[in-house]
Amino acid sequence: MEQTVCRARAERRREQRFAAQIPAMLSWNGTSQPVEVRNISIYGALVVGAWLPIVGERVTLIADHLEVCGTVIWNGPDRCGLLLSHAIDPRAIIGEAHVADAQDAPITLREVSPGQYA
Fold it and tell me: Most CB atoms closer than 10 Å: which of 23, 39, 107, 110?
């Protein structure tokens, strides 16, 4: 009797991915849809949205401090993977998104002792 051993295939990527929650627009073939970038690397991005292009479609991903062309290389019901046309700095994109969020957030101070606030 022949025995078959199945092992989970380890995902191997050359470039590190960074988790993100960046609002963006994805444009293709005269259509633009709001998406959220959930993770990003030097050459790729995972975007989530309600209506996304098919595999092979050329797209433009637009967010604050980012505009890059790419190709859809896989898709699912509410997400797709993009292969970007040129290298980007994911840390800079994520950092810019966090800076923008921090600038928009209100600051609340409370008095911790007479005349001192924290």
Answer: 39
**N-term to C-term CA, the chain:** 72
- Mean pLDDT, residues 7-27 taken together: 76
45-69 residue pLDDT tens: 999 999 999 999 999 999 988 999 9
Residues contacting residue 67 through CB under 8 Å, at least 6 positions apart = 60, 61
Tokens found for residue 59: 């797209």
Q: Which of 52, 55, 54, 49 is nearest to 37 (CA)?
A: 49
3-state DSSP assignment of residue 99: helix
Distance of CA 80 to the CA centre of its chain: 10
Sign of CA pseudo-dihedral 86, 90, 91, 94: positive
Taking alpha carbons only, the member of 36, 26, 34, 20 closest to residue 57 is 26
Q: Measure the CA–CA gap between 87 and 91, rounded to whole angstroms.
A: 12
